[in-house]
Every structure is written in C-alpha cells, then in structure tokens.
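Final report, closing paragraph on structural work. Over the funding period we assembled a curated collection of sequence-structure pairs, and we close with a single example.
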Amino acid sequence: MQPQKILVINIARFGDTLLITPVLKALKTKWPTAILDVFAHKKTASVIENLPWVNTVRTFSKKKAAWMKYFHRRQYDLALVYGSDDALVEYAKRVSTLTVSFSDETGNANWCTVAPPKQLMPAQQERALLAQAVGVEITDWRLCYCVTPQELDSARQFLTKNNLRGKRLIGFQLQSFPAKAYRDWPISSFKEIANRLLQAYPDSHILLLGGPEGKTTAAALASELGSSATSLAGELTMRQNAAVMSQLSLYLGVDTGPTHLAGALGIPMVAMYHAFHPGRYLSPQQHPSLVVIEHPVDYSDASREEPMSKIDVDTVWNAVNTLLAKHIDLKVS
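Its predicted structure, as stored:
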C-alpha cells in the first residue's frame, strides 16, 4: 500500500485531538510524499494548525458529513476515522478507497474495522490501533503542538507589557471542564501550593489558566494571591494561551485539555489524575520532565464520587519543588 492522499477525521475536544498527533507524525513518516489532510471540530481544528506533517486542516462535523457524502467523489486512498459515528464513517467510505475505523462489525475490502479495546489501555496507544491496522508502527509517543514564531513573539510582548519577563512563571490549571468537575482539585489546595511556591521561590509569578467557564474561580484566587498572580482564564484564545504556556517554568494542573497541551509543549509539569481516570492511561508519554500524581484510590475501586482532596498538598508540593529545583534557571528571557 502506497497512499498518495490520506484523510484523518477526528471530531473531539482539543485534548483528545492532541492525542492523535503521534499518529499523524507516524503516517507522514511512513509515507512522506503523501498528502495528509485532517478534518476536525471547528472549536479544536486550531490544535492541528502548523504541524509540519499536516497539509490541510478543515473544520468538519457529523451533520456536515451526513449531507456532504452525496456531493463528493472518491479522492483519498486511505481514511482513518476516530469515533464510531455512522455519518463520519459513511462519509469516509464515500471519499476514500480504504477506510479504517473502530467497529465490532466485520469489515470488507474497502473498510478495515478495528475492534474497540475491551479493557482500558493508554489513550495514545488506543488511537494508534487504527494506524497499526494498515502497517504503521509508532515509537515516538510524544504529543505535538507547534507555536509559530509570530505567536511566540506576541506572547513575549504580552509578558513584557505585564512586567513578567525575567519572572519564574508557574501555570495553574485549576479546573477540568464542567461535565467532569469531579476531577478538580480543591482551590484551597492550589492556594496552599501557591503560598509555598512564593515563599520558596520569591521571583515566581503564578498564571491562572483556563477557559471562560473558569474565569470566576481564577479571578477569585488571583485576588487572594494579590500581585503575585495573574488570571488569564477566558482572556486569550486557545493558540494565544498555548504560546504563553510555552514560556512557563512549570505547569501544575488537573486532567483536562491544557494538561495535554502542556505535555505537547514539553514544559516541566505536574499532572493530577482522578481515580476514575488514571494517569497511567491518560498522561503524556515520553515527556522529559513530568510527574504524574495518581489518586490514592485504585481504579478497580473507583467511582466518580471519589474526592480529589484525597491527593494531599504535601505530595503535590514535593513534586513541584523537585521539578523546580531541577530547572532552577528556567525563567522567561
């Protein structure tokens, strides 16, 4: 098989979109002359922008797939479809010679089906199953994101404007998205970490990250911390936020999209995981400077009701302090 045009369809949240980036890189590594297009959700397509292996990123949806299949002829040699939505799979079958997707159905010459895993497995390896079905091997599991030179320059200007250049910037992601708020660590615990940080590393400044849904919480904590903290929650676009995050000395967060993003940026990071969503399955892989903090309750006994407060402050502080000690000179230049 030597595809000339490859399509990857992934309609997902932006953290889940980052999880397919090792697959995208591996596809282009195996078939370097092939054109690789990615169709993604309109709110998350920007995550894939500027990756050197992707030729085109287009916004797409299940609704669009349902009617566009009647107006597009076959134009791809290979399509990988993430998710089990029939509309996406049927569209891919229409426009591609070979479609690969997760399904318990038996495939055929034009549709390669991969049975969904029956047990939990690392999220990146799970997504790799589709590529492996067509002979693509993956050894580089690092998540990927590309900050452009222009975005980096804008981020540095933003930090200069706010008198943060030369500071040791520490990013806090306080919350997951509302539907999974049980993954949130207590704000009082974040405040205690902040106080310890500022005492041990007085040249630090804390940036409170997040989207519009976390704006009120982040602003309240920033007010309590005074001039040593700035809330960026809801103030920046996803790509602007990523560019600022690339300048962090350390990231501390709960299990959510920005934590995947921190992993893709390769910055020192401490990530906390709920018992129902273990870090051994969800944390960034092959990260050079990552401490994963698992909830003390084992997954086999877990429920969504397990409070994240069972992760104690001392455990998190020891991880934060250890990483900062290793990267003592890492500041915004």
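The first strand starts at residue 5 and ends at 10. The chain has a mean pLDDT of 94. We thank the funder for supporting this effort.
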